[in-house]
Description:
By secondary structure, this protein is of the alpha/beta class. 38% of the residues lie in helices and 22% in strands. The chain has helices at residues 48-56, 95-107, 113-126, 142-155, 172-189, 200-206, 235-238, 242-258, 264-276; strands at 4-15, 22-33, 37-41, 63-68, 71-72, 80-83, 160-164, 192-196, 209-213, 221-226. It has a 6-stranded mixed beta sheet with strand order 6-7-8-3-9-10, with helices on both faces. 37% of the residues are buried.
Amino acid sequence: MSQIHLELTKVGIEFPTPKGPFCALRDVDLKIKKGEFVSLIGHSGCGKSTVLNIVAGLYQATTGGVVLNGREVNEPGPERAVVFQNHSLLPWLTAYENVELGVKRVFKGKKTRAEMREWIEHNLELVHMTHAMHKRPDEISGGMKQRVGIARALAMEPQVLLMDEPFGALDALTRAHLQDSLMEIQNELGNTVIMITHDVDEAVLLSDRIVMMTNGPAATVGEILDVKLPRPRNRLELADNAEYNGYRSAVLRFLYEKQKKIEPISAKRAEKQVEQGAPAQAKSVA
């Protein structure tokens, strides 16, 4: 996992407003290795989604740029697949057909119809959704919809999987199941993953590195934390792990002390969590 294949150099972006240009990001530098799982975390308005959209090619940086495998990123492409918080499934299509859309876009003329069918079913199997492949979105739960969205992204065989708070709208139990599935998939496929999250525990559990963003405007990378917990990771075994809780405390300190942007009650609660080591439960930072 030593090859750098995605690099952000001095990335900045301004948006026009009636009062003049608004600087959302400034001088974002980040090198990501092949097969690495990187989380972006920070308070609302720190530019996490803007960074993701620039990597996806949906936004053009005002300054600096993004290079993937030696080629500049300046538009969307199938080598970068995005999973949003909203699953974005087409409601009139089945789970199978929603995944098929992405597969046809990437593999039309490259795979036979039988090969495409096998590939679609394989990716639905990765997210444990073969039993519901012929159901439409209104016939399945929120967690199952998100699984289909992940399967659709994986089926495009992207070099980089971009995830914008993919589990943010789910209940705690469903979120935990999907986190475990994502760890299994990433372990099997070795995808490079960039994920935005507001959840400290989620970031520590899933990541190889956590990129902590400063508050906007003109947000940038504040600190980068290497998470050296061995894989595979088990959330129950990590609950009382001193190293795991040390990483959690480091992220909380950055968010609640160095980049303070919260209500006083929440600040006191966060400080108490840091002092006590805080139990390993899902904590939202925004």
